[in-house]
Amino acid sequence: MDTLDKEFPIGGIAPHGGELINRVLTGKEREEALAQAHELKGLQLKSSINLSDLELLAIGAFSPLTGFMVRDDYDRVVQEMRLYSGLVWSVPVTLAVAEDEAAGIAEGQDVALWQDSVPVAIMSVAEKYRYDKAREAREVYRTEDEAHPGVARLYRQGDVLLGGDIWLLNWPQPREFEEFRHTPAQTRRILARRGWRRIVGFQTRNPIHRAHEYIQKTALEITDGLLLHPLVGETKADDIPADVRMQSYQAILRDYYPAERVLLGVFPAAMRYAGPREAIFHALARKNYGCTHFIVGRDHAGVGNYYGSYDAQLIFDNFEPEEIGITPLFFDYTFYCRKCGGVVSAKTCPHGKEDWVYLSGTQVRQMLERGEMLPEEFTRPEVSKVLMEGIRARQSQEGK
Ligand SMILES: [Zn+2]
């Protein structure tokens, strides 16, 4: 699969834990494992987060993890944000199954993981264990409120966790945005080919408004290149769909960014909405993709009012910089100020709210649904247009 620029090394910043994991089987190894999978006990993966975690484990985005977490890792991650080895890791990566499914699987047994009629992986089940969902909710999401989308998913899932190594046989589906789906190893080769040494990663699940463009370009002033890395796995139903976002990114990159200094790739992860802990997780994953710097804005990976505005930045203070390895760049809220005549933040503008152009996510959605262009100070017209067309297409699909 990895024919891209073989002459360029995978090099760059050390992956988390030192080794870039690759559990994607190819060639003869894959053929043998596929034949074996049909003989093994099978387990259907029904949840899209399990399928996306599986892919990210296999391609090394979650290095040093080589599979779903065993109990010692899980416990210490929940309690202390560290793997059993002591290495920093902030969110559980687990495979939950129902009691009756678990009953048919023994520790030490190899099982095949299926997506519908396709075997996607082999898993060597090292452990099966019970866990305390309320504790995970409190520690990881900082709330037991079932209205929190991450907590709701946790409470819905099975009561037993299976831990153990995985090997990927087939890519989970759907596999959208193929041309932007670079693995960490492929991304590192592209970065090496471009000769970038200081690379800043930008995680997003939103369109790029002027405020984000300002943050990215400010970071680009002090780095060699930007990895624009939208998350395209499962998000909340009211987030803008990934295909519309991808069109909006391409529109703005074409007209407003220097092509030779930006790489667009997709991050096939599901949103956990774990706020501060997810900020650490997103940073470590981007280190595995080869980034040296990572942008953490206000309320990164947050939802509702569960986290303080700066919690996702403050959480980095719990660790020594070398334990994280990638350098976080913290940004405040940014917005257009009419008096300053440009995008600013409370750190750089002496004026007040009456001069600032700011719209909430809800206001943006309502304007687009009414067919109104967003103010140019807030969003480039090219982006507004793509978003509006996306919303119209969805409305006509839903028969509104
Ligand atoms: Zn101002």
Report the end-to-end length measured between terminal Cα atoms: 43 Å
Secondary-structure-based class equals alpha/beta
Ligand names: zinc ion
Shape: globular
Low-confidence stretches: none
Considering DSSP H and I runs of 4 or more, what fraction of the residues is helical? 25-40%
The tally of beta strands, per DSSP, is 14
Main pleated-sheet profile: 6 strands, mixed
Binned strand content = 15-25%
Mean pLDDT: 94
The whole-angstrom Rg is 21 Å
Order of helices and strands: HEHEHEHEEHHEHEHEHEHEHHEEEEHH
**Count of DSSP-assigned helices:** 14
Summarize the structure.
35% of the residues lie in helices and 18% in strands. It has helices spanning 27-37, 48-59, 71-80, 99-103, 133-141, 149-156, 184-194, 210-221, 242-256, 275-288, 311-314, 321-324, 361-369, 381-397; strands at 41-44, 67-68, 95-97, 110-115, 118-130, 160-168, 199-204, 225-230, 262-264, 293-296, 327-330, 334-337, 342-345, 356-357. The strands form 3 sheets. Strands 1, 2, 3, 4, 5 and 6 form a 6-stranded mixed sheet that branches. The chain has a 5-stranded parallel sheet with strand order 9-8-7-10-11, sandwiched between helices. It has a 3-stranded antiparallel sheet with strand order 13-12-14, with helices on one face.
